[in-house]
Amino acid sequence: MIRSERTILRSLMKSAKSYWRLLRDSEIDGPAFSDALGSLLTQGLVGERGEILYITDQGQLTIHDLMAQQDVTCPTCMGHTVFAQGPFQGLLEEFITIGRERPGSISEYDQGAILPENTISRALYMYQRSDLDRQKLFFLGDDDLTSVACALTKLPAEITVLEIDRRLNDFLRQTAVTHGFANFTVLDYDARDPIPQELQGQFDVFFTDPVETLQGITLFLSRCTSALKGEGSAGYFGFTRIECPLKKWQAVESRLLEMNFAITDVIRNYHEYYLEPLGIAERGYRISTNAPIDVCTPYVNFFSSNLVRIELVGPPKPTIQEPVTWGRDLYYDEEMWVTLPDELL
């Protein structure tokens, strides 16, 4: 039995689950999950009852020596390793109030916002790792409003956001004025172009949620790398499993080494995304259309990503420095099961 099949069965040992809950709990990329679940159904090890998947008697016999998956996540920090206390109490409530006015996510830019609690945890984690207080922060894309969460702490020396969505940029600029954020700059920017010359080599820390094609990840990380000062500068990015098989993880790790980074932290399932349920069910996302069963509208936030922290161990060496002319292939490849191709936008 292959690893992905064993992972699915172990998850189902504790309780029967919907397709979407099983997908979230299994942490397998979309194509591999679909193949493994289809195989288990064909073998008769997993059964389907309405919208619910369960282990059959035959399946129970097959895995009788495995322990059911137990939830051992810390109930206080919920796996984020940090929680708001002391001077950071009240940040979440203030952030939620601001976030109610943000523009909605759109598929054109592969947007999808994480939960507010996760955004605040990002800022706190940066603080814990000495990457917030008196630091010059660079954000490439920010539909999660992580720049706002950091600004609310009043700790960064400077925040600069480069974002392609002008709706979001207008919102960020107005938010900065309304709340009196000092040294908060927002620029209209397309990552296909190099970052402005005056920003190169100026920042201590970057944060980005890159698109997850291999060339897109390489491009975003390259642009961010060019913004960093040098050895000791740090970067953060979100990275999924559902759209990134381990071979893609390996390729990204190789590029990070070439850019002169060491990976210092990887925290699983740090971010939980809210994706419009009807959009997932009706718009033709492959996570629905390529499922081995008929799936219902998701009622759980099944899409999550990991938090990765990296640090320069020498001068920055961005892989891509020139302009690129990529189109939708920047956002979409055959592994993107929660991203839409051109014809479905």
In short:
It contains twelve helices and ten strands.
Describe the structure.
The relative contact order is 0.14. Helix 9 packs parallel to helix 10 (246-258). The mean pLDDT is 94. This protein is α/β, with parallel strands linked by helices and 345 residues long. It contains twelve helices and ten strands. The strands form two sheets. The chain has a seven-stranded mixed sheet with strand order 6-5-4-7-8-10-9, with helices on both faces. Strands 1-3-2 form a three-stranded antiparallel sheet. Strand 5, helix 8 (166-178) and strand 6 (184-188) form a beta-alpha-beta unit. It has two domains: 3-62, Orthogonal Bundle (Arc Repressor Mutant, subunit A); 86-318 and 331-344, 3-Layer(aba) Sandwich (Rossmann fold), CATH 3.40.50.
Helix- and strand-based class? Answer: alpha/beta
| CATH fold category name of the largest domain | Rossmann fold
Helix content: 25-40%
Poorly predicted runs:
none
- What is the top-level CATH class of the largest domain? Alpha Beta
Q: Count the strands?
A: 10
Number of domains: 2
Q: End-to-end span in angstroms? A: 38 Å
Percentage of residues in strands? 15-25%
Sequence of strands across the biggest β-sheet: 6-5-4-7-8-10-9
CATH superfamily of the largest domain: Vaccinia Virus protein VP39
How would you sum up the global shape? globular
Report the biggest beta sheet as strand number plus sense, adding barrel if it closes: 7 strands, mixed
Radius of gyration: 21 Å
CATH architecture designation of the largest domain: 3-Layer(aba) Sandwich
What integer is the average pLDDT? Answer: 94
Order of helices and strands: HEHHEEHHHEHEHEEHEHEHHE
**Tally of individual helices:** 12
